[in-house]
């Protein structure tokens, strides 16, 4: 239950920080904000301060920053629709930027708390490892790429080795004594090793652990967020190509359930919290990217229509009718709600079964 509560609070934090990004940039760029809401559905708390209504709503699955003239023309000089395109662009992108910043800060705090992190540097080999030597791997080698995929953090190595588990050889690029060394067709495959008396298929490589320093923390956190972003794009590619389907997607119910499971598997409260924070950081970067996809009702869709409208004005000398944009976003929002409902029912079904 502890991790469920923490998961819900952190998930609500990501929504709040996203909408706060829109809110604070709108205020700074002189756009009137009519309502700032965390959550959807019936209002649990609502208070008006100045021109803005601040609301906390029942369902922590979204939120909004309702700006004057956002979906329709307005005579108000501070309306969103009357502002310069560069101001609109900043406001629309600010939510995703804040989600990415939140993910970066969470990872930074996580690594700072642990005081160290694993890096993609070879630290040794298990007994029987067959690819050690000048023509293979040496202790101290920093892995730069695996099969053409750039390596930033240890998680990249783990992901690429897992993806190549069925291949007979790998193409690696490593940094050795300050120089790049290309290791093509390296016969690096999982072998059977004995761990705690049990046979286990492993690559047999030990990786180094570095003590945290401020410059190292910044670099490691940045590369970790880059790993998160690549994981999101990989997931989207699998969704588009049909490798995964609706049953593999998760909404708020599934995410909170997964966070609870990950926290419980930590072995201690501290380790459990670290697991939860790591996943929330991944979700933060996920939200940053997903919200910038050029789909109706998402920030990316609004940015796309903003750019299309400016190109239309440039060539035709007149603006697009705002009602068409409003219709597009309304249809997109309806479809998005349908998808959320379907995913939520799928999450509940998986929990029940």
Key phrases:
single chain, 353 residues, alpha+beta, two-stranded antiparallel ribbon, 50% helix
Can you give a write-up of this model?
The chain is an alpha+beta fold. The protein has helices spanning 2-28, 85-114, 154-163, 214-240, 252-264, 269-290, 299-316, 322-352, and strands spanning 33-49, 52-67, 116-125, 142-146, 149-150, 170-176, 179-186, 191-195, 198-202, 205-211. The strands form 4 sheets. It has a 4-stranded antiparallel β-sheet with strand order 5-4-6-7, with helices on one face. A hairpin with a 2-residue loop joins strand 6 and strand 7 (179-186). Helix 1 (2-28) runs parallel beside helix 6 and helix 4 (214-240) crosses helix 6 (269-290). The radius of gyration is 24 Å and the shape is elongated.
List the SSEs and their pairings.
Elements: H1 2-28, E1 33-49, E2 52-67, H2 85-114, E3 116-125, E4 142-146, E5 149-150, H3 154-163, E6 170-176, E7 179-186, E8 191-195, E9 198-202, E10 205-211, H4 214-240, H5 252-264, H6 269-290, H7 299-316, H8 322-352
Antiparallel strand pairs: 1-2, 3-10, 4-5, 4-6, 6-7, 8-9
